[in-house]
Design goal:
Blueprint lengths: L1 H15 L4 E4 H20 L10 H10 L6 E9 L4 E11 L6 E11 L2 E10 L10 E4 L4 H4 E5 L5 E4 L5 E2 H9 L2 E5 L1
Parallel strand pairs: 2-9
Antiparallel strand pairs: 1-8, 2-5, 2-7, 3-4, 4-5, 6-10
Helix pairs in contact: 1-2
Length: about 180
């Protein structure tokens, strides 16, 4: 994990600065793995159980530095947000192809001007692992506010996005943008 922290530090420092930044595929992957690791750590700080991430998934991330499937990660610029922020929610829905339960967990965190959102899903064993999990977005200018860094959509992405999140209210809205998931 210290190797991951050393690798992500210059990326995060760049995103926290005032100048535009370009993230290549390696930067996006490193930042996404770091974000999922942080989502797992934040979840482990909760006293109530059960946890979404299994110990085996935590161990696999630590050992391989590969992301769980299906997982998506976005970044957004915070405006007028000085301190840290973290919010997490369990989501659930029903898979359309098999009527089985689909579980998801969304973690939204912010470190000053950088907001990161991780959405991870789990399918029942009767659903093929290649099944795509989608969710319903609540209304908002999400395409102008967020930059998806995982799964990688573009070889290079430009930071910041054209719009930002305003203070804690913006972060609250961002953290609540997902409705129960469907596959």
């Amino acid at each position: 994990m210290s190797r991951l922290e050393d690798h992500v530090k210059p990326i995060v420092v760049g995103l926290l600065g005032d100048k535009p930044v370009t993230l290549d595929r390696d930067d996006q992957t490193t930042l996404a793995v770091w974000a999922v690791k942080n989502a797992m750590v934040y979840e482990a700080l909760r006293l109530e159980a059960p946890w979404f991430f299994a110990n085996s998934e935590r161990r696999a991330l630590r050992e391989s530095l590969r992301l769980l499937s299906p997982t998506s990660v976005w970044i957004a610029k915070c405006i007028e947000q000085a301190g840290p922020f973290c919010s997490a929610s369990a989501l659930s829905g029903v898979a359309e192809i098999s009527s089985d339960q689909v579980r998801a967990y969304v973690t939204t965190m912010a470190f000053g001007p950088l907001a990161i959102q991780v959405l991870s899903g789990k399918l029942s064993s009767s659903n093929p692992q290649s099944t795509t999990i989608t969710g319903d977005l609540r209304p908002g200018p999400w395409n102008q506010v967020t930059i998806q860094i995982w799964p990688i959509q573009s070889e290079r992405v430009a930071w910041p996005a054209s719009m930002g999140l305003s203070g804690e209210l913006g972060l609250d809205t961002f953290s609540e943008r997902w409705s129960p998931v469907n596959s």
